[in-house]
Design brief:
Length: 281
């Protein structure tokens, strides 16, 4: 789970963006002592995520606001379900409403889309994982949403693992790929994971000769994926990437790959329709 300080840092930036000098509508229209109770209600089916930033938006705005979560992180919900209840100062509830909803809607969208990919590969041993194609500043929350949807996380940042992609290999062209990768292994701590992307079958053996940990087969056809898995023969984790959609992911998983990375989990997820409903007095 995410550290509370990390969540608060992200949420504070969003609140400052949304109400840099306060909520002038609430201050002009709502009596200072007015209170309100609002329900977070699903307008469509989905998987819930974003509970922590949703609650933090209200708590940071006014610590006296009570947020009662009815749905746990990763819970599936149906249209009409109540996911949370918020009670407290009407001004504060309305001031935090949009930011809280933005987080819950966005993260639930990521979790919901991820769950569809996970369901599509059910019965295989393939893991669905995210990529670094995330919303700037929201990577930690979106990765949590992927986990809430049943997926797994790839490396968090460039600092976490060696991942040699096509442009890296293009720079070292003219040298032995095997030797370049062996030298990279010598330069990093022994605990560092090394992954290499290839886009042709004939690149597999020179890469595996360097004793790398994961080989990514990028934009391979299904036949080439099967052949790639056969050639790797358990000597490294096999990841498939490129051309992955809900229509293609089951076929990719059936080739025997270990991991399927899907940028769409975060860069193409649609926000789920959730509403914060305050009853009229």
């Amino acid at each position: 789970m995410l550290a509370p300080l990390a969540i608060d840092r992200i949420v504070r930036v969003a609140l400052e963006e949304d109400a840099p000098w306060g909520d002038i509508t609430g201050e002009a229209l709502i009596p200072e002592n007015a209170t309100a109770t609002a329900d977070l209600v699903a307008r469509e089916d989905g998987v819930f995520s974003g509970a922590a930033p949703f609650a933090a938006a209200f708590r940071i705005t006014d610590p006296a606001i009570d947020v009662d979560l009815s749905a746990a992180e990763g819970a599936r919900f149906a249209a009409g379900d109540r996911l949370a209840r918020v009670s407290g100062s009407a001004r504060a509830v309305l001031c935090a409403e949009r930011v809280a909803l933005n987080f819950a809607q966005r993260m639930s969208g990521v979790a919901t889309l991820t769950s569809r990919y996970v369901d599509a590969v059910s019965g295989t041993h393939a893991r669905i994982v995210d990529t670094r194609k995330t919303t700037p500043g929201l990577r930690a929350l979106e990765r949590q949403a992927v986990r809430a949807g049943g997926g797994h996380n790839h490396r968090f940042s460039l600092s976490d693992a060696v991942m040699a992609k096509d442009n890296h290999l293009a720079v070292v062209a003219g040298r032995s790929i095997t030797q370049a990768l062996r030298e990279a292994r010598e330069r990093v701590p022994h605990t560092t994971h090394i992954e290499v992307e290839v886009d042709r079958i004939d690149q597999i053996e020179p890469v595996l000769a360097a004793d790398i940990d994961t080989i990514m087969l990028d934009n391979f056809s299904l036949d080439d994926l099967r052949e790639g898995v056969r050639r790797v023969a358990g000597r490294a984790v096999v990841e498939a990437s490129g051309g992955v959609s809900l229509d293609t992911v089951a076929g990719i998983a059936a080739t025997g790959v270990d991991v399927i990375s899907v940028g769409a989990l975060t860069h193409s997820a649609r926000s789920i329709d959730l509403g914060l409903d305050i009853a009229w007095g």
